[in-house]
Amino acid sequence: MSAAGTKAPSPAPVDQAPEHTGSRGATLVQRLVVVRELGIFAALLLLVLVTVIANPRFLSGQNMRDLLLSASILTVLAAGQTIVIVTRNVDLSVGSVLGLSAYASGTLLANAPGTPVIVVILAGMVVGALCGVLNGAIVAIAKVPSLVVTLGTLYAFRGLDSLWASSSDRLQINAADLPASFKSLGGARLLGIPVLFLIAAAVVLLVGFYLRNYRSGRELYGIGSDPAAARLSGIPVGRRVLVAFAVNGALAGLAGVLYAARFQTLDATAGTGLELNVVAAAVVGGVAIFGGSGSVYGAALGALLLTTIGTSLPQLGLNPFWRDAAVGALILAAIVLDRTLSLRLARRLRGRNLRGS
Amino acid sequence: MDHAPAPPAPGRPTTGSVVLALDDVSKNFGAVAALRGARLELRTGEAHALVGENGAGKSTLVKILAGVHGPDSGRLLLDGREVTLDNPAAARAAGIAVIYQEPTLFPDLSVAENIFMGRQPLTGGRRIDRKELASRCRALFDRLGVRLDPDRPARGLSIADQQMVEIAKALSFDARVLVMDEPTAALSGVEVERLFTVARSLRAGGAAVLFISHRFDEVFALCDRITVMRDGQWVSTDPTADLTVDQVVRRMVGREVASLFPKIDVEPGEVVLEVRGLTRLGVFADVSFDVRAGEIVALAGLVGAGRSEVVRAVFGVDAYDSGSVRVSGADLRKGSPAAAMAAGIALVPEDRRQQGLVMELSVERNATLTRRWKLARFGLLSARGERATAEEWAARMHVKAGKLSDPVSTLSGGNQQKVVLAKWLSTDPRVLIVDEPTRGIDVGTKAEVHRLLSQLASDGMAVVMVSSELPEVLGMADRVLVMHEGRLVDDIPRSRADESAVMLAATGQGGTTAVAS
Amino acid sequence: AMVLTTAACGGTTRGEDEGSDAGAEATASADPDAEIPADLAFAFLPKQLNNPYFDIAAEGAESAVAEVEGELNVTGPSEASASSQVSYINTLTQQGAEVILTSANDPNAICSALDQARSGGAKVVTFDSDTDPECRDLFISQATSEGIAQAQIDIMAEQIGGSGQVAILSATANATNQNAWIALMEEYAAEEYPDMEIVATVYGDDEDEKSFQETQGLLQTYPDLKGIISPTTVGIAAAARYLSGSEYKGQVALTGLGTPNQMREFVKDGTVTAFALWNPEELGYLAAYAGAALAAGQITGEEGETFEAGELGEYTIEADGTVVLGEPTTFDADNIDDFDF
Amino acid sequence: MAVDTAPATPAGQAPAQRPQGPSRLRLLGTGDGVITFVLVAFLLVAGFTVEGFASSRNTGFLLLDVVVIMLIALPLTLVIVTGEIDLSVASTVGLTSAVMGQLWFSGLPLELIIPICLLLGAFLGAVNGFLVTRLGLPSLAVTIGTLALYRGLAFVVLGDRAVADFPRSWTGWALSSIGTTGIPVVVVPLLVLVVLTGVVLHATPIGRSLYAMGNSEDAARFSGIGVERTKFWLFVVTGAVAALGGIYWTLRYGSARADNAQGLELQVIAAILLGGVSIFGGSGGLVGVIAGALLLGSLRNALQLVNVPSDVLNIVTGVLLIIAVVTPQVAAAVRGRRRPRGRPAAP
Ligand SMILES: Nc1ncnc2c1ncn2[C@@H]1O[C@H](COP(=O)(O)OP(=O)(O)OP(=O)(O)O)[C@@H](O)[C@H]1O
Ligand SMILES: Nc1ncnc2c1ncn2[C@@H]1O[C@H](COP(=O)(O)OP(=O)(O)OP(=O)(O)O)[C@@H](O)[C@H]1O
Ligand SMILES: [Mg+2]
Ligand SMILES: [Mg+2]
Predict the structure, then answer these.
(1) Which terminal residue of chain C, N or C, has fewer Cβ atoms less than 10 Å from its own Cβ?
(2) Which residue of B has its CA nearest to A294?
(3) How far is the CA of B399 from the centre of ligand 1 (A)?
(4) How many CA atoms within 13 Å lie on the side-chain side of D300?
(5) Is the pLDDT of residue B345 over 90?
(6) Partner-chain contact A23 B161, CB within 8 Å
């Protein structure tokens, strides 16, 4: 017991703590977050610019309105998806939930044409929230990967939807079955801006504000950043994840009602295959697929960008066959850009840890 | 988190009332009995040490206090009343703050948010008050003497800084009971001193501090009483003043421990490892040194000096920008651990959970991972061959494990470290690099590791040892290389190596001796 | 002797077709007076289940099957893909269906599966969308392709005065029917209305949203566009909805193929003046009768044979084993309320 | 699973019993064991109750439907075991099919087209691999991008056309069966690939390193495993095998189209996950995957035979997938709750 027996000397004091610089980090980090969203915004502007040069009518009021209208449903879905992705989960069932909610609200209106619009919206959101709660409960209680669970409910909700449609007397609900008051919502404008888009924008602002400024919102980021640490920090992980899924479901339900108002032809296929677009919008918008970072504003910009591509390609005179390819290339470009930026940030943070070399 | 300055302590309150007590607590993980009738009693205004070998159940006990695990049997008493802590939030509400053995930070969130997660200061509208958040964070850091930007993300913090953030978090609770599970393992001298100052002021303010460490100097310097645990059971609780290190160690181990630093003197042979002008921009620069067969070379320095980065670059896990590495005269391809292994280098990394082991895989798979190609016949592996090799090495390293087919995550920290060593020694390396080989390891195991290193060197292996523990460096090394801020600043032979020489160089005040070439 | 020659011909054209005995049925001779056996097992396999258009066709098939006292099994995939259709055809083969009424998602991909069904004794009647003529016994065409193409061009020409830019909004890029019609439309327009210019063909993939966006794109890209022809029910409905809510309503003409129920609203509000379609119910009805006649041996699928199709009367088989339902109906404000499908 | 139900066991006996209890439970608890058991049970039940299910012709139909799914599942299982994912496989099938059609249309012989297509597939996989391993991007995001890109390129190549005049000798082979067994000929090469993949995954150093990477990439790297290189080549192989799937798909349906196999990726992934492979990597086995693919295929087949509508089929598929991941968790929870009760207080 020689060395341990003699009390080991306490570590010699050193005159200074390791150096860390102060506020430059803050501006750098904030700048990066802004840059991320600015990057997408710049891409969007560039695309619009190119399209306008090729076809000046792109900027016409009608076209802009159409563009915003087209983007609004995807935007609502992307906002909801962001809440879920931030917690290191994903919800692939949103397309099916949208379909279910759209068909439900169509059925409600066809059977009770007098229902006020707000009640229809609430009903759609309730349907969506129920689906979301089911997803969230399985994920949170059984602690199983959400990718698998929602892949399962993607099939199951769609199956329910078409089972419902085929067993009811209305396989397809058409514009003629819907009351005028509801249909007018699809084209309605406020100050020249489509109401559907205003709804989507309100959703984005609300969600964005919540995620940034409320404790439970920040906890969602914490959960996604490190689930084990979240549990040790006393965050009610299961409950938060459940709520995230429920809110996302409710927003998908809302998107379903908007879909009904806009397309007015509702059958069991509404929203099929939408899930990848939604995830793509979020990813393009800088929401990290493994949780913990990204903002709903970015996701909304992503949705707008994807929609703009969809509408501007034909106007650029490009073969419509190029559309999917362009969307794919864009997604890749966005994640590469995002990666490059965050690498640069990491390098600078590391560089500032160590001085002198 | 307005911390009222601690009232001046009127002397040491040695007999405060009991705030928190564990009584006859047991906890099983599957077939492993982590705790069997453990006991603990914390009083107000005391700093209480919990010591025990690796796997004695210290961390498990902490997690029961923290509400992470529920005990299978036994009672938890808070102010004399029995309570059940179902989750970490409940423990926190009861005034128990915990610094876990492994950092639990959110890499994507800012440092300030990490500290105040779930307790961020609010404005009237229940919104987070960001300004207040940053200023409280800064106040905490001032108290700890840390200079960190509250708004930077936790990602990329060094282990030491991560630990400081954890400490700040625990402090911010203003808790009645502060539990620290090996908080100093990654800290350097100054930081440890600061932590102790804070802990003492908390104690003076009437809080109870539970301190877990494998470093006896710290335990004796800080704590009023010491509880010893062995094999999940309570052994003894006594005032520090009545104990010597020897006694504690004997109680922990239940047997005599051989000399801690059994250095065997060896005549160094050929140069095996040559590092020349190794530079990684922003991390380390112009690092050159040689290691001979039979030599133990220690790489010393303050935490964050870049030692780990150097050995990682040598082993090829990290890239480097310029310089070269030669093994037995042959150039080593850069950036390829496989090439390094083929050349006979082995690296026992500093973070065993992240880097050393695949936690979900079994002990045997981990132990044979580095030898998977050698064990294969015609490209195929046989389960029996793997098992036999694993058994042999587990026996040689005295690994304490339930079954070799259990996940290595079920082993205690020290036994995990032995598996890492086994995994690398089984490759029969010419150069063994060990990064913090005894971090978080109990005395008994530590001595075993040291004897092993010494033995290996005397058998002709070249050993590079990165260590933050001065006694270990001085006791084991033939030569001490000292790094400061990414540069190699000194090369001290065993004859001249003493504490002050190493510390002076490490803090950048030593003479910048030209280093071996 | 006639019969033998047919068989031989079948043999030579399928020179490479080893093992498949699908042609064997052709050896049976037609007996126009044969009774339709009771309890025939019919299977109705649309491109996709839960599609309103095919749902109506299924209703037609149902009444025909009831009239011949058979049994009808409506089955099919939930997505319109050839591969899942193959899987359903295989199931029908295994179940021993005697008459298969199907609309192909791909003219070739389901061929081998149909061959196998036929070698198991089933009669295959395609309707709406044909396969390779070799793989089925009969095809029930909703109208001649020429008829469909000409009707749409004529309606459009009437509305825009025979000149100006016109665009086409189609279904998927692979849709057999639409592609055939579009080719014929372009040909016919070039001949009859030289001042009418077909400037673009875009694809809405038979998805409402995509069709909607494509309409919007067309109007942006071609400011002078006078009209849109959408030869698909999904497309025309989406385009009508877009137009009715935009400043182009009444400015840009829209026609194509649509169902009265979907289009009623837009005919009434003036977005659409006229459009065309056959009656899908009659299409399903005729297909079922044709299948029954094949199974009974009244016909073998040769050109010139005739059969009785219940209340629709007598039909004659034309070249390539095709039976044409009739000319498409044109719907406008005057007659649209007489139809409910 | 009724083990450890007797808490009253005398203390002395318990240890003797314990080792076998958990291990038997574990066998049933792993995805492999459960899913294989379920498959066998289902085949037996369906064989006796569903008319026309247990015939050689139906076996052929069933196998033909799952051949491509199983084929692509092989390399994709390895990819998922390493903790990555490739969603672009079905688009690779589509693009290969389109290119194959275009080349055939322009007059090249199939003997030349097939190697070109395989190379193309390998290249498409290499693009994924490059983006994931060199640029360090998350594979989920990357392959959502290439899912759209490759499918889009397929349409760019072949547009709205379908090329269908492939020689009967080739398309006939794709459908022919071994003698009168009803078992398709292609099952033989597939079986070879299954065995090969199984051996690689479970009995070679490469397989070991895949599991290590899937659990902890860092630890694997520190153990001298070339993580990036291995993953890169896995993506390449996945691309090439998907291309093989595309070639087979085109021949089997005799039709090259840009939209071939759209949505197939979800079916393949469903089969893999049903087979007990963790989506997070590091666990699962090939036996389970094969059983999962067969279970999905035969379930659909049997339900179709009894005229269950496709809506219900979708619901069943979805629910099955969820049950497959939830069951082991529930089993573990039940096990965890039982053990302490069954244990003696102190040895
Ligand atoms: N989650 C778990 N699952 C299974 N076994 C566990 C778990 N956590 C701890 N153990 C086991 O419980 C025993 C006590 O471990 P614990 O971590 O409490 O030891 P410790 O005293 O903190 O050791 P160290 O000083 O190495 O940190 C060990 O045998 C360990 O393997
Ligand atoms: N993952 C990382 N990201 C950013 N910076 C890092 C990272 N790891 C280490 N660093 C920084 O690199 C420098 C060198 O760290 P390194 O770990 O090599 O130091 P060390 O001397 O080995 O200390 P330790 O005793 O902690 O191992 C430090 O400033 C550290 O903060
Ligand atoms: Mg511990
Ligand atoms: Mg280090």
Answers:
(1) N
(2) B108
(3) 14
(4) 26
(5) yes
(6) no
